[in-house]
């Protein structure tokens, strides 16, 4: 979306808040179970969290160079028009709509509903239809009551955002302080409890199952959902005071803080729950590891505490995702590369049609799969574009060698090369380890190809240009 000259008013503190606030969502509470089911080793789970954090940090620093150079033109949709071409930029924007951001909204809403279910216990709906599937892949009626609550949340937040309601910086800061305080409460009381056993944390592998390179990458697929959101820092590159210093510092401090927090909280989960218990949580499909861990040392009161915490965290993250994501589709529609009606603003200056189109598709995705299925689709798709942005560091240094860069990525060319290679390996590994999720994600992304030419033809007809 085009904009006037951006006002550089954000200091280091708000950059850190932005980075951390956009990362902490549902992964910190739930992803330890699928990672354990893949690796069968608590030590390897913690290693994967660190590795995913380091790669996320490297990727964020590469993103910071691109954002610093092209900050005044918008986010990745605008970056790609300069780095590659309009078609690739459109494919990114379409992928945000088809799978990346809408599935993120769905996944966050799903965990919100699961957490609320732990508190109020929804009645089962149509249990006899739980095994009904579409092609043996989608089970729309499984956990139907949880899915319907998730859908209601998406509808409610979409409606609220269509009224122009959004959280201010003070509210975001307040929620972040609340979440951090609550998570550290879990860490301190969990590790100090009688049921905690740090001896459970070791490199030993349960059932003598070997830890393969493929298993590590598949487990990191889950960990990356926990770090998803760091790229948002690039969207405010043009609004940061002394961006050359504060943007990379904010990213580094924010992600290192998250790496330390994730190590501590996941070590707490792993000291409270055995590998078999975490396997059972993963197989259950509708349980959250953090809730079961806290149940072990605080009983029902602990379940209420952690459930309310997850509800607050996912509510805030889901609302932020709904609010920000629709802006890209609105910008595309203004350029004639999305459905024309999506370019409409209501009297509150909110992109109302963009919000509702996004909301409807997110609701459909809730019915289509489980939380882990949704997040694996997201990570597969998003790493294609993380790799493309990082590759853009090399391309822009060739295309625009003399352009002023507020920040140059540390460790060039090694750090961006590591990120590009890692993205390629992760994508290939996902194709083999999660073929269903990779195929669905790729298919949704590629639906944009015919739409691009359709939008382009219609736009040419209206403007009289080729």
UniProtKB/TrEMBL annotation:
Q: Which residues form a coiled coil?
A: none
Could you cite one Gene Ontology molecular function of this protein? L-amino acid transmembrane transporter activity
**Alphabetical UniProt keywords:** Membrane, Transmembrane, Transmembrane helix
* TM stretches of this protein: 12-29, 41-66, 87-112, 132-159, 171-191, 211-230, 251-272, 304-330, 350-371, 377-397, 409-432, 438-455
**Topology with regard to the membrane?**
Multi-pass membrane protein
Which InterPro entries does UniProt cross-reference here? AA/rel_permease1, AminoAcid_Transporter
- Which cell locations does it reside in? Membrane
Keyword Transcription regulation belongs to the record: no
**UniProt key word Lipoprotein:** no
What's in the GO CC field? membrane
What is the name of the protein in this document?
Answer: Basic amino acid/polyamine antiporter, APA family
Species of provenance: Parafilimonas terrae
């Amino acid at each position: 979306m085009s904009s006037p000259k951006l006002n550089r008013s954000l200091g280091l503190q708000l950059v850190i808040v932005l980075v951390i606030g956009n990362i902490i969502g549902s992964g910190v509470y739930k992803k330890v179970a699928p990672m354990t089911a893949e690796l069968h080793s608590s030590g390897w789970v913690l290693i994967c969290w660190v590795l995913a954090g380091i790669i996320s940090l490297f990727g964020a620093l590469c993103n910071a160079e691109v954002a610093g150079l092209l900050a005044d033109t918008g986010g990745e949709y605008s970056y790609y028009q300069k780095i590659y071409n309009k078609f690739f930029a459109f494919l990114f924007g379409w992928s945000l709509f088809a799978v990346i951001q809408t599935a993120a909204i769905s996944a966050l809403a799903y965990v919100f509903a699961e957490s609320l279910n732990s508190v109020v216990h929804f009645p089962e709906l149509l249990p006899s239809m739980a095994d009904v599937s579409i092609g043996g892949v989608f089970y729309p009626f499984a956990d139907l009551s949880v899915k319907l609550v998730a859908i209601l949340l998406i509808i409610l937040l979409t409606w609220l955002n269509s009224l122009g309601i959004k959280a201010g910086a003070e509210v975001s800061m307040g929620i972040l302080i609340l979440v951090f305080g609550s998570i550290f409460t879990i860490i301190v009381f969990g590790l100090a409890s009688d049921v905690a056993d740090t001896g459970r944390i070791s490199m030993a592998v349960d059932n003598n199952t070997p830890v393969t390179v493929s298993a590590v990458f598949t487990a990191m697929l889950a960990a990356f959902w926990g770090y998803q959101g760091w790229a948002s820092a690039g969207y405010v590159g043009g609004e940061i005071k002394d961006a050359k210093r504060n943007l990379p510092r904010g990213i580094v401090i924010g992600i290192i803080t998250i790496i330390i927090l994730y190590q501590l909280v996941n070590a707490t989960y792993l000291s409270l729950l055995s590998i078999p218990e975490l396997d059972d949580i993963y197989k259950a499909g509708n349980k959250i590891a953090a809730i079961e861990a806290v149940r072990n040392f605080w009983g029902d009161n602990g379940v209420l505490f952690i459930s309310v915490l997850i509800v607050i965290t996912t509510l805030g993250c889901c609302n932020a995702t709904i609010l920000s994501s629709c802006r890209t589709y609105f910008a595309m529609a203004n350029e004639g590369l999305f459905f024309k009606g999506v370019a409409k603003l209501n009297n509150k200056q909110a992109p109302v049609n963009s919000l509702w189109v996004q909301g409807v598709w997110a609701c459909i995705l809730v019915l289509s799969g489980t939380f882990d299925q949704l997040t694996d689709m997201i990570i597969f798709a998003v790493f294609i574009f993380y790799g493309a942005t990082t590759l853009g560091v090399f391309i822009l240094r060739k295309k625009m060698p003399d352009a002023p860069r507020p920040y140059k990525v540390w460790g060039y060319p090694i750090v961006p090369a590591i990120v590009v290679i890692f993205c390629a390996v992760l994508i290939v590994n996902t194709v083999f380890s999660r073929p269903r999720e990779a195929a669905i994600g790729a298919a949704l992304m590629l639906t944009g190809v015919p739409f691009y030419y359709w939008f382009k033809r219609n736009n040419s007809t209206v403007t009289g240009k080729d």
